[in-house]
Amino acid sequence: PNWLTVSGVAAGLALHAWFGGLAGLGQAGLGLGLALLIHLPLFALRALGGGDVKLMAAIGALAGPKDFVVIFVFNALLGGALALAVV
Predict the structure, then answer these.
(1) d(C-alpha 48, C-alpha 56), whole Å
(2) Tens digits of pLDDT across the chain (87 residues)
(3) What's the CA gap between 27 and 61, in Å, rounded?
(4) How far apart are CA 56 and CA 42, in angstroms?
(5) How far apart are CA 18 and CA 52, in angstroms?
(6) CA angle at residue 47 from 81 to 71, to 5 degrees?
């Protein structure tokens, strides 16, 4: 639901700002931007839904850019393994 993903983005921005000041807020913004940069083209290609993009944006804001890259790689690997198992 939108309330969950929007509140996740807001929580990520607020927590990073609270604990890291403007530098923390910048890290949350970079994580959010990186998540959108990766997932919006996939949404445009209809490989992902809008909810997936919003969820990954919230995760990006909560995790920051460095940790988001790790999360994205594991997500891709586990998704690929699951796809092979289904086939």
Answers:
(1) 11
(2) 899 999 999 999 999 999 999 999 999 999 999 999 999 999 999 999 999 999 999 999 999 999 999 999 999 999 999 999 999
(3) 8
(4) 12
(5) 27
(6) 50
